[in-house]
């Protein structure tokens, strides 16, 4: 049987993290194919409902990544995202879902390496957790 | 709904890792996909033409292109669809190069991922809505930050184009690093002789307003309409009255007791000073960290400077002032810092007076420098001189980049030592001589012929400078020890210590090396990701004077262009509020970093000012009733994209 491959949705802010992922590309730093990236203008745009929708529709993990504190293109969107994701993780825990399935990161436009590292690490972690089965909860 | 999907092979950049024909086969079956094709280069003329043709013939109303990063070609394709009658916001781009083919090796998995990403875009495309981009008028003025050679060049160019320029420099005078240099490579021009006329041009130019001893405090607004707050530090000298005669500095009680930073602290000045004789403006400044009067409220029995000043220009009551400037564009030319080798004990810098930096050498050989150009160490002319290259550069643990100027300034300095001391023994420890610029190799060859020993060492080979009673011994791995009486460290160029703060104020990014990041290393090397903010000189990366000047001229053209057009188109992505759904809870109000949301107390609902809204979407993510829609990133659009990707 093929090894289990987790499915990850990544919400990356346009200015820092999406550019960081682009840099991983232009620098040809390879990482697993498991992540599918959705571009948002700011990590502050990420509604916790997006995270839940992704998990509901079959994602095993969700990455939200923004600029480092103090470097947000919109001044403070990353602070808001950080708070919201913390709450989302608490909520998931209450629902019986391992909160580590949702991850918030700071990745700047110059951190292509870091982006590849985060994805690789997250894939390994999700492989340990195994597939997310919402049936169990229902 | 008719969607056209175009998958790009990008030569083999995508095609080598993604099975493009297979992607096309799969995408064809997606709902609402009217046509799906692939091109070798979708961005090329034939690629663009095939999109135009399909839009017309098949009446497409949405277009999806799967190719490189939207940060690269989104504007290209938006223009293509717009020309053919589709609103540019009805176009969606999928990144299957930077995010797929360039980072994955397994073709099967990469192909699957590309299909999933396109499925997401197709699902999202169905909910895309046409948006109107606003045109805003541009304030026909520019701000240049930094008064070194790059800032000077940029300011002069923009001013000569006929636009008003504010040039803000943090130190008391224009000139920057170039003013400190003695000669410039490879032509051996006198640095001051070519720089100071330009400084005077700036001061005299009717379109340039010079704000020296001033710093950027705050930047608000956007391209065309920046509002910049500048802090003017108090000079404690009325610049309208000061004639630069220097009687005050002569009289100062601390004369000859304050370290002179312009001379790299190798000489001493008064507490009231001009940095160098050709300073522009030629106005004195009181060093508030050293002046007795400013520190202790008194200075002996009488204020000698005040007594000496015939113009009555000294004013201890001056306070810092804040001025607001309205400008359309900004050029950042804030320069660099010199690497400080005192953090690297192996070089024996600061321990031994015989070890100096490249910039200290410049001051010591300069006729206006602390020794009036006599190169002396401990009162003695050097007989054995060693130059060490790559100090603080090409260091994987520290600054990994090459500083690009040290090889050539070392060659120049070796030449100058030879010129002054025909009998001196001169050695250069180098790793690679990077003589890449026009006339550089020729200059290096000339220096080689001047009996200068170029000694090669690997970057990782140990090197150590230890003091002894006569001078120093340079111990380099694989080479005999050299007993030297002068060691010059070819110190590199490092990011300014306050780059992070400047980047924050201007809302621009830093590269991994700590210099400011350009929007694209090849295609937009003068732009930043913030529209209307451009880069010139060493703040972007180390460069020599010709490159800094060339880049400054380029940045000036970029900065002047919106001023000339008088109008710019701003992004249409803003939030809107559905008044029927808004409950007036005001949760969004505090989330907005731009005060774009305002509570209308009569109606008990929120209103949005779309000129102030920058489109981050923080409010939309928090609105409990779903009254706020973030245009182009609406819940519907994002949720559809999530579903599209995960359905695959």
Strand content of chain B: 15-25%
Proportion of residues in extended strands of chain A = 15-25%
Q: Please state the average pLDDT score of chain B.
A: 96
Q: Which sheet architecture does the biggest sheet of chain B show?
A: 5 strands, parallel
Number of strands of chain A: 4
Radius of gyration of chain B, taken over Cα atoms and rounded to an integer in Å: 30 Å
CATH topology of the largest domain in chain B: FAD/NAD(P)-binding domain
Question: For the terminal residues of chain B, how far apart are their CA atoms?
Answer: 21 Å
CATH level-4 homologous superfamily of the largest domain in chain B: FAD/NAD(P)-binding domain
CATH class of the largest domain in chain B: Alpha Beta
Low-confidence region ranges of chain B: none
The geometry of chain B reads as globular
**Number of helices, counting only DSSP H or I runs of 4 residues or more of chain A:** 4
Whole-number count of domains of chain B: 5
- Interface with most residues: A-B, 51 and 54 residues
The number of distinct β-strands of chain B equals 34
Q: Quick one: biggest sheet of chain A?
A: 4 strands, parallel
Describe this structure in words.
The complex is a heterodimer of chains A (138) and B (648). Chain A has helices at residues 17-26, 48-56, 77-94, 112-129; strands spanning 8-13, 35-40, 61-66, 102-106. By secondary structure, chain A is of the alpha/beta class. Chain A has a four-stranded parallel β-sheet, with helices on both faces. The longest helix of chain A has 18 residues, at 77-94. The radius of gyration of chain A is 14 Å and the shape is globular. With 648 residues, chain B is α/β, with parallel strands linked by helices. Chain B folds into five domains: 3-133, Rossmann fold; 135-233 and 320-333 and 498-564, FAD/NAD(P)-binding domain; 247-308, no CATH class; 337-494, FAD/NAD(P)-binding domain (3-Layer(bba) Sandwich), CATH 3.50.50.60; 575-630, Alpha-Beta Plaits (2-Layer Sandwich), CATH 3.30.70.20. Chain B contains 18 helices and 34 strands. In chain B, helix 12 (406-420) links the parallel strand 21 (384-391) and strand 22. In chain B, helix 1 (20-28) runs parallel beside helix 5 (107-125) and helix 6 packs across helix 7 (191-204). The model of chain B has no long low-confidence stretch (mean pLDDT 96).
